[in-house]
Structures are given as structure tokens and as C-alpha cells.
Amino acid sequence: MVEILKYNDDDLKDNEIDQVVTRVKAFIVSSKNNMLIGKDEEGYQLLGGYVDDNEDYKNSIARHIYNETGIVLDSKDSIEPFFEVRYYNRDYKGSKQNRLSDMIYFLVKTDKLPNYKKLKLSERELAEKLPIEVIRRSIFHKTLKEYSETETNPLIQVKTKEILLAFDKMKEIYKF
Q1: CA distances from 136 to 32, 37, 132 (A)
Q2: Cβ within 8 Å of residue 67, ≥6 positions away
Q3: Are the beta carbons of 119 and 105 closer than 8 angstroms?
Q4: C-alpha distances in angstroms, 98 versus 12, 20, 72, 78?
Q5: CA dihedral 136, 142, 146, 151 (to 10 degrees)
Q6: What HEC string does 99-158 produce?
Q7: Tens of pLDDT along 71-95?
Q8: φ, ψ for residue 87 (rounded to 5)?
């Protein structure tokens, strides 16, 4: 059972929702306890993205990981959803639409490494790819917390704090 955390300051009821947007995000951990995470000018980012209509969540996270890293996940890899964060927003960004944004977090266990050659990217496309960093699991929380404390952009701070919240939930569930 996946734990769900809801943020519903607008006190929206399910029948008031006009739009549902679902995203999947992955903590990618190797057997050597290394974690892959993206980092660019917008801060640290878990790999993942939007779920297409009628797309299975596991297939979606595997697709995004492939598109962002060239890693092809298969039956030898573990892909488990463990946490969900739901944001209910009335009149989302002035759109007159009440929106539910659903973030589903996965633990992906694989020893495969990024391989952009599989993606057959042009030089320009390769330069635009999200840079991937490897961080030891034992210092992941500390690294992101220190980063968040020095970051001045409030949006980056919020995103980083959500990653840390999900990371702490993952540690609790999987007894890391």
C-alpha cells in the first residue's frame, strides 16, 4: 500500500476537480548504494515526468528513465511505488480550473549506468540533457539539505524539500 500525503488548503472535493495531472519520480539506487539524480540551474531533480493518458505508472517511469538516461529497465530491475503526494489547487495559476497534481514516487533498484549513446542524440540534444550526478545514499540527505539551505530561489527550496520528504519516507519504508 502506497502512503498518500494530501495538501488541500483550498478544501476541494473530488467532484470539484476539473483536471488531474500525474507525474512519476524515481529514486534510482544501485546495489553499491549510489543514487542517480539530475541537477541543473533549476536545482536537484528526480528523474521522471508526466504520465500519458492510459499509461501504466511503471511503464511511465521506465520510459522517462530511458529518455533521460538511456537506461533500459527490465525484469532484473526493481520498480516499486512507495509514496504519493497530492496537491489540490482551486483556480490553478489563474486558469479557472481546479487541479489535482499527483506525484508518485518510485524506488528503482538497478546497477545500470546512464548511456546517452542509446538515445542517438545530436550534439545539441546531448548538450540540452539534464546533467546526472551520482551521490552516495549515506550522504544524499545531507547533500540536498545543505544545498537547500544555501539556495535563495524559493521554488528550488520547495522542490528540494519535497525530494527530502520523499527520501525520508523511502528510508522509513525500506529500512535504509
Answers
A1: 9, 11, 13
A2: 49, 119
A3: no
A4: 8, 9, 36, 35
A5: 70
A6: EEEEEEEEEEECCCCCCHHHHCCCHHHHHHCCCEEEEEHHHHHHHHHHHHHHCCCHHHHH
A7: 999 999 999 999 999 999 999 999 9
A8: -115, 125
Q: What is the pLDDT of residue 119?
A: 80
C-alpha span between 92 and 22 (Å, rounded) = 15
State the cell numbers at 2.
502506497
Question: Which triple of cell numbers denotes residue 23?
Answer: 507525474
Q: What does DSSP assign to residue 10?
A: T
d(CA 168, CA 83): 11
Q: Scanning the structure block, which residue is given the C-alpha cell 511511465?
A: 60
- For the chain, residues with pLDDT lower than 70 are 1
Instruction: Name the residue with cell 470539484.
Output: 16
- Angle, to 10 degrees, between the axis of helix 137-150 and the axis of helix 154-174? 160
